[in-house]
Amino acid sequence: MTTEKETIKPQLMKAVLTVKEKQVLTPHYIRIILEGEDLGIYAQANEGDNNKILIPLDKSAKLTLPDGPVKGGDAKLAMRTYTMRSLDLEKGEMAIDFVMHGETGPASTWAIHAEKGDELGVLMKVKTKPLFQSAAYYFIMGDHTALPVISVMLEKLPKDASGDVLIEVYSEDDVLDLVKPANVNVKWVCNNAPGDTSMLLPEFKRYDITKETDKFVFAAAEFNVIKEIQEVLRADDTLERKNWYAFSYWKHGVAEDASANDRRGLRNA
Hints:
This is Siderophore-interacting protein. By secondary structure, the protein is an alpha/beta fold. It has 5 helices and 11 strands, in the order βββββαββαββαβαβα. It has a 6-stranded antiparallel β-barrel with strand order 1-2-5-4-3-6. A 5-stranded parallel sheet has the order 9-8-7-10-11, with helices on both faces. The relative contact order is 0.14.
């Protein structure tokens, strides 16, 4: 029996999976299809949830999942956070989408050079928090890193849902054909220098969501962009705090592990 001060840790699902197929979706997006005998471990996982991927820095070496946490100075593994784009246990497939930004980081480098049979560690926690709250109107926005989770959200919205979606990608060549409810409008904006600048906030201010009485807002992007978006959302007297999520997926010029505390603090603010 647990006390009020005790917390139950979410169940951890983890396995080493292998590349089944690599799909180049656009100039800046790669979809990696994973398979493995242990895929059934993720039966309680939800599409759109974050996962931690363990990337072998030497893929010729056998990947073994560590018992403890992976630290930034690990010479064999790098850990990064991604979104599970899809899971099909009948087909035995899990899909993860990667943003290609050159060989400047371990995840992008791994995805660019991924070949059939390459190993990848995938760690996920059983989560109960929904991707979105039920509402009459949805406003969803994000940069290139949020495209996977936004894609999942659009697929899972009620068929009669209405709302607006704002997505920032590198170029028109990165626009994807998304499955969405008929009454949800998607606007794509292009920005070939993400981090240096962003179109999300000025474009968001073009919309008047204050007229919507029952709404849910989702935003995911770079740290400083989300910080500004949060300020706008908090100032909206028509929007209750429980009805918006705003997440920082990355911080410009800072590696994921080095920016984790800053981004976590922003999420909890």
